[in-house]
Amino acid sequence: MIRLGVGLGAIAAVRQGLGGREPDLVAAAHACKLGGADHVVVRVTAAKAPVTERDVASLVDTAALPVWMSFEPDPALVAWALAAKPAGVVLAPAPRTPGGLDFGTRGPAIERALGELRAAGIATVVVVEADEQALVAATGVGAERVELATGRFVGAAGEDARVAAFRAIARAAATAGALMLRVQAGGALDLRDAARVATLPEVEAIVVGRAIVARAVFEGLARATEAFGVRVGAVAPEATEEAS
Fold first, then answer.
1. Residue 79 gets which letter from DSSP?
2. Which residues pair with 148 in a beta bridge?
């Protein structure tokens, strides 16, 4: 069964906008667990805001769900992860930067980060564009897992462009499988797009953040997580029926 990761960044941003301590990220992780999520993801930056060291420590300590940290391949952030000991790390481009990592300029930094995290026993995923060149570059720096960036698919203008972007993701997933890379996908996916990407046989996990939080405004976080889980195949429909 495919796995569902829930990004908590939008919840942290809401908390920052409101001020104070709410909504609480630990409570959010528990709600995601109730909805059938397999892990949560927190995006961290050198500024340690809106997600703080205390947030990460609390999430890891409570163990409601495995916690993955997402950040650029920066030595200070790698050191933070080594101290925090999350279940995994996603090496990603800078916030609000579309697509995958730039292996041309950041290849050595990515390779160092992968080596340090692997030595500490922390599973690591690198975010890549859905193309063969990026996948070959990922294997060149020692990556064993990749996250295919789905932003071009989500943001495609018109159905023809969407079809072309989805075919690129499908080809990239197949290429990744041939390169013996484990594959997940994420990047602004809504319910329809997440369900479509989840049909690709090589994709082991789907990561969704903002779309689940947006739906949760009306339904609650556990129910919103559950709805995505059922659509992508991470939660059995009968589990939903039993819960209701």
1. H
2. 128, 185
pLDDT in tens, 123-174: 999 999 999 999 999 999 999 999 999 999 999 999 999 999 999 999 999 9
In 95-178, where does DSSP find H-type helix?
103-119, 132-140, 151-154, 159-178
Output the six-digit token pair for 106: 């950041």
Phi and psi torsions of 186, nearest 5°: -175, 160
The residue assigned the tokens 């659509």 is 231
Instruction: For residues 154 and 166, give the distance between their C-alpha atoms in angstroms, rounded to a whole number.
Output: 9
Residue type at position 210? R
Specify the pLDDT at position 238: 65
Nearby residues of 2 by Cβ (< 8 Å), 6 or more positions away: 198, 203, 204, 205, 206, 232, 233, 234
Taking the CA atoms of residue 95, residue 177, residue 173 and residue 211 in that order, the dihedral angle to the nearest 10 degrees is -50
Closest by CA position to 12, among listed 42, 33, 35, 32: 42
Show the domain range for 147: 3-243
Distance CA 32, CA 34 (A): 5
Total domains in the chain come to 1
CA distance 238 to 13: 34
Name the residue type at position 131: D
Residue 97 confidence (pLDDT): 87
235 SS3 class: coil
Q: Which residues of 124-147 are buried (b: 16+ CB within 10 A; e: fewer)?
A: bbbbbbbbeebbebbeebebebbb
Percent of the chain with pLDDT over 90: 92
> Over the stretch 14-64, which tens digit does the pLDDT of each residue have?
999 999 999 999 999 999 999 999 999 999 999 999 999 999 999 999 989
